[in-house]
Amino acid sequence: MYLMADRVMILWQVWEKVFITIDTKSQTAAIMSSTQSNSSANVTFVRPATFFINGFYNVPHAKYYYVFLSLVYVVTVLGNSFIMCTIYLARRLHTVKYIAVFHLALSDLCGSSALIPKVIDAFLFGHQDISYEACLENMFFVLHFMNLQSLTLVVLAYDRLVAICFPLRYHAIVTKTAMFLIIGVMWSFSVTFFSILVSLVNRLSFCRSNVIDTYYCDFAPIYRLGCNDNSVHFLMGALCFGLLICTPPILIFISYFCIALALLKIAHSVDRIKAMKTCTSHLMLVAIFYLPILSNNIASLITPIHPNARIINNSLTQTIPPMLNPIIYTLKTEEVMQSIKELYKRSRVYATMERMKSGRN
After folding, report:
1. What is the pLDDT of residues 109-145, one digit of tens each?
2. In terms of Cα–Cα distance, which of 174, 162, 160, 167 is closest to 282?
């Protein structure tokens, strides 16, 4: 009996020790987790008051290049404003296709306005210091409008695909409502994507340098300055390159492959040539926009490029296409040329009528 009681007491003491040990471990884990949460809540990121944009460093005769960029910007503003006014005033251009062309001109104008004036101010007038907040704003607007230019070229390829492959259903598929919806989706996607991209910069600590070795606040050179973990930023940069630079030309290539197959089925050569002419201006815009970008990126992977040559190539890639786009659409598109002639004749008639009225008075 006593032996049984001793065994029960021993078992009770063992279980009591086990429960005490478990309770102690749980309290320790709770204390550690609360300490970690407090420490994570108290994490501070080191942010510089300003960044120093160091592009075009030691470029010989760089001031002549800045003057050239100024002329490019003037031509870009005048050309894109002219094409937008022409589309707005000419009734024959109030079609679905020219909604996309108007949007391309607007994106070109805004993208150049976000980039070129800041480059000229920084390097021609020596204002290379830029505040942290202004740098993030510059990054967002430059990348956002460049992305809109790329996506608009895809939309124009889609327009040509439907027009040539499904000519009888074109007006039912590509409507004004559908085009405005597509443009709205483009804006929503681009604003959301680049808002996330720019906000990731706030998760970096800049404890080494604030010098950006490029000509504007680009994402990749900035995240490489961070001294904490930037693996997420690297993945976002790779996603940006794959999704926004490589995917659009692939989609355009697929569109024109389908267009080529449709053109081969057209019996009459005259009709085939007429259909091909509607694509020439768009193909030229695609070549001017994507070939320099892809060439620069492929060349940088294959062979080392001098930093100054890389910066000049990239700046020309971003500034020349917006200048050439309205010129190409004006000279290579028959509808636009005809509309310009009609507007000119209308303005001449209106001016003559005004002179006759003033003469009578």
Report:
1. 999 999 999 999 999 898 999 999 999 999 999 999 9
2. 160
For the chain, what is the radius of gyration of the CA atoms?
31
Tokens of 81: 């404003």
Instruction: Indicate the DSSP class of residue 44.
Output: -
Structure tokens at 23: 């309770």
Handedness of CA 296, 294, 196, 318 (dihedral sign): positive
Environment class of 59 (CB within 10 Å of its CB; exposed 0-12, middle 13-18, buried 19+): middle
| Burial of residue 189 (number of CB atoms within 10 Å: 0-12, 13-18, 19+) | middle
Q: Distance between the two ends of the chain, CA-based, in angstroms?
A: 135
Mean local confidence (pLDDT), 330-334:
82
Whether 114 and 136 have beta carbons less than 8 Å apart is answered as no
* The two three-digit tokens of residue 327, written as one number: 């010129």
**Cα distance between residue 211 and residue 51, in whole Å:** 6
DSSP letters spanning 291-324: HHHHHHHHHHHHS---HHHHHHHHHHHHHHHHHH
Q: Could you tell me the pTM of the whole model?
A: 0.84
The crossing angle, in degrees rounded to 10, of helices 176-199 and 96-123 is: 30
Best CA proximity match to 53, nearest among 115, 146, 111: 115
User: Which residues does 127 contact at the CB level (< 8 Å), separation at least 6?
Assistant: 121
Residue type, 36: Q
Q: For residue 158, what are its two tokens?
A: 């889609």
pLDDT tens, residue by residue, 57-77: 888 888 899 999 999 999 999
**Among 329, 339, 244, CA closest to 279:** 329
Please list the residues that pair with 130 across neighbouring strands: 51
Tens of pLDDT, residue by residue over 196-239, are: 999 999 999 998 889 999 999 999 999 999 988 889 999 999 99
- The answer to whether 109 and 145 are in contact (CB under 8 A) is no
d(CA 134, CA 136): 5
Contacts of 146 (CB under 8 A, 6+ apart): 111, 318
Whether the Cβ atoms of residue 329 and residue 93 lie closer than 8 Å to each other: no
